[in-house]
Specification:
The protein contains 21 helices and 14 strands. β9 and β10 form a beta hairpin. The termini are far apart. α5 runs parallel beside α7, α11 crosses α13 and α19 crosses α20. It is globular. The longest helix is centred in the C-terminal third of the chain and has 19 residues. The strands form four sheets. It has a five-stranded parallel beta sheet, with helices on both faces. It has a five-stranded parallel beta sheet with strand order 7-8-11-6-12. Strands 9-10 form a two-stranded antiparallel ribbon. The protein has four domains: about 120 residues, Response regulator (Rossmann fold), CATH 3.40.50.2300; about 160 residues, Rossmann fold; about 70 residues, Helicase, Ruva Protein, domain 3 (Orthogonal Bundle); about 70 residues, Arc Repressor Mutant, subunit A (Orthogonal Bundle). With about 475 residues, the chain is α/β, with parallel strands linked by helices.
């Protein structure tokens, strides 16, 4: 057993009965700047965890005389502040799912690739630093903020940072990613938590009714206005208003929205009396507002007004590691609501969930689990209890490949591969609004590698727009 030093760098403990493997990993991690301790004995590992601050445990739990699941359960219970990455030479989907359910930050199969282990450790420590307090985890789960994906942890961290202010927040994400849940969480973490939270989907009402619904009207202002109506902004006074599908607001309405967001003043339909409201606005869109501004369908001044703090929620297919966690959460919720004795999912059910790409995102997963809980007659949901998922549309599959231009003139393989790589990088950057960290996470590379590739293909700075036009 080698002993740790006392520096302030992240501390990693390696538990592996194969000393060649542990010493090789230790050398790699020390090169990366970590303080590393190694042991081949579970009892020593527990003692080290007890007596020293340890940020991460890297462990092969296939130990003589021990049951891996029991060991992991005990380690997570006794040392909740230490992240755990499980290593194994006998990997399977079932054991990976079980490790995730028991709290492992990651699950890697031997032989270990240097870049893979380095990336996994970096993400696990980042995630630990963001979500290290158990009480905080429980509180966020109560708000519906569920998931261990690093990108989602950044979403939650940003939401918490902005919650205390009255700053306007724009939430961007595909339909079903949980924009409404995040908006409610921001409100419930804010000083306005005891005041009204008013939600309206701008795309759910015809243009002729949206103005009245938002700003109210006076009796007789139009046919059917048989009484005065306050409107959603007045109803949200001193609280928070959540405007979903803001991209659906018609241009005339955008002018009035700009004024009320900027000046906190409005006039009900048919009235010349100005009302002042104290409202914190959270808005959401599933469309690219910047492109809509360029196309002239969304006001530039309104875009700049609402684009103060933007939170981008990644689609579920980009954080598949959260699928088992979300599924188990929905099982518990709907089993309790329906009074059913359903306690989880079988490995076959988990495999079916992980094989699906979730075009409907978290909402689709939630609906699938609710259906399964209602129809399942057993304690564990099996694959046959889940709906039959349709394969991705052929058109959507073709569009991915069709976006990559192939060379038409003779060239080396290295040069030819630059064309699709450039297209893939650009597509990922556009999906994340040119957010480098989110793009790097999706592509499975670090920010430095992404930056070098962006420079290589002129996808950085003033050349970005020209590069985008060239690929388009």
């Amino acid at each position: 057993m080698t002993m740790p030093d006392t520096t302030s760098r992240p501390r990693v403990l390696i538990l592996d009965e194969d000393r060649i493997v542990s010493h090789s990993l230790a050398a790699l991690l020390r090169r990366d700047g970590y303080d590393v301790t190694t042991t081949d004995n579970l009892a020593d590992a527990k003692q080290l965890l007890e007596n020293n601050r340890t940020d991460l445990l890297l462990a092969d739990l296939q130990l003589a005389g021990e049951k891996p699941a029991a060991v992991l359960r005990e380690l997570r219970r006794r040392f909740p502040q230490t992240a755990v990455i499980v290593l194994t030479a006998y990997g399977s989907i079932e054991t990976a799912i079980e490790a995730t359910r028991l709290g492992a930050a990651d699950y890697l199969t031997k032989p270990i690739v240097d870049d893979v282990i380095s990336g996994a450790i970096k993400k696990a420590i980042e995630q630990k630093s963001l979500r290290s307090e158990p009480a905080k985890v429980q509180a966020d789960e109560a708000l519906g903020l569920i998931g261990r994906n690093v990108a989602m942890q950044r979403v939650y961290d940003l939401a918490e940072a902005v919650a205390a202010s009255r700053t306007t927040v724009l939430i961007v994400g595909e339909s079903g990613t949980g924009k409404s849940v995040l908006a409610r969480a921001i409100h419930r973490k804010s000083p306005r938590r005891g005041r009204p939270f008013v939600e309206i989907a701008c795309g759910s009402l015809p243009d002729t009714l949206l103005e009245s619904e938002l700003f109210g009207h006076v009796k007789g202002s139009f046919t059917g206005a048989v009484a005065d109506k306050a409107g959603r902004f007045v109803a949200a006074d001193t609280g928070t208003i959540f405007l979903d599908e803001i991209n659906s607001a018609p241009p005339p309405m955008q002018v009035k929205l700009l004024r009320v967001l900027q000046e906190r003043q409005l006039e009900p339909v048919g009235s010349d009396q100005t009302k002042t409201v104290d409202v914190r606005a959270v808005l959401a869109t599933n469309a690219d507002l910047a492109s809509m501004v360029s196309a002239g369908t969304f006001r530039q001044d309104l875009y700049y007004r609402i684009n103060v703090v933007t939170i981008v929620i990644p689609p579920l297919r980009q954080r598949m590691g959260d699928v088992p966690i979300l599924a188990e959460h929905f099982v518990r919720r709907y089993a309790q609501e329906a009074g059913r004795q359903v306690i989880g999912l079988t490995p076959a059910a988990h495999r079916k969930l992980l094989d699906h790409q979730w075009p409907g995102n978290v909402r689709e997963l939630e609906n699938a689990i609710e259906r399964a809980v209602v129809l399942c007659g057993r304690p564990l949901i099996d694959a046959e209890d889940l709906p039959t998922f349709a394969p991705p549309p052929a058109k959507a599959q073709a569009s991915v490949h069709g976006s990559i231009r192939l060379p038409t003139t003779p060239m080396t393989l290295e040069k030819a591969l630059e064309l699709p790589e450039r297209s893939i990088l650009l597509a990922a950057l556009r999906r994340h609004g040119w957010n480098r960290q989110a793009t790097a996470d999706e592509l499975g590379i670090n920010r430095t590698t992404l930056y070098k590739k962006m420079r290589k293909y002129d996808l950085d700075g003033p050349d970005a727009a020209a590069a985008e036009a060239a690929v388009a």
